[in-house]
């Protein structure tokens, strides 16, 4: 079963990321994402993943009365922002939880799992 794993961090939406997409000021245990990536890629459960730019760089798209409306910035201001994502292919939710719980950012931030419709 495929899952979208969202890595959410508590930082201002316009704050940038540090080296390799790591949050500025990340605690040392949060810096070992590369090791997690290597392990999950080796297991074959991580299909794709990237750090993403801050919400201040986003564009919101709406269509109203046949017209495309664009807004700079995130759709909603929130305390936690999505810093990155991974697409996982796991046997079941238990395995997806096990994989997500090993992500270094889960120790002091939030990792959310959303199953794909199949």
Automatic annotation (TrEMBL):
Parts of the chain that traverse the membrane: none
Stored InterPro entries: Dimeric_a/b-barrel, YCII
Record-annotated YCII-related domain positions: 38-117
Family: Belongs to the YciI family.
Record-given protein name: DGPFAETKE family protein
